[in-house]
Amino acid sequence: NGSLYLTGTFKNTVNLNPAGEPLNATSAGGDDFFLCKFGAGQLGTKDFERNLGITLYPNPSDGNFTIEGNGIENGQITIYNSLGSILKRYTIGEQVTNVLSAGVYFVEVSANGKREVKKLIIK
What we know:
There is one protein chain. By secondary structure, this protein is mainly β. The chain folds into two domains: 4-43, no CATH class; 49-122, Immunoglobulin-like. Helices cover 3% and strands 46% of the residues. A four-stranded antiparallel β-sheet has the order 8-7-9-10, with no helix packed on it. Strand 5 (55-57) and strand 6 form a beta hairpin. The protein starts with a strand and ends with a strand.
C-alpha cells in the first residue's frame, strides 16, 4: 500500500521526533519497542529538497571529523545518540573537543532554514 514501517527498541524515555516538537515515549520497564507507520502521503520529495549537501568525513571516525558544505557558516550542529537524545549543540565555527565515545550518532546541520542529518560512526 506504499506505507513505510519503522521499528526499534528503547529503554527509559526516547524522543521519537528529535527534529521537531518532542514526541516522547516512556518505557514501562525493561526493553520496549516502537512501531511507526508513515503513509505514502507523509514522505515526499519536498523533504529531500531541503538538504544542505553537506559532507561529513572521515566516517567511520576516531572521534575527529570534518563537516563541509556551502552556506552553512552561520548554522548549528546538533549531535544525537542512537536513541534520538540530544547530546550536544554547537555553532558552526565554534571550537569542538572530542566528546563522543565509540558508537553510532546522528549529526544534524541546520542553516538558512534548511537541515540535513548524517549518520556518524565513532570507532
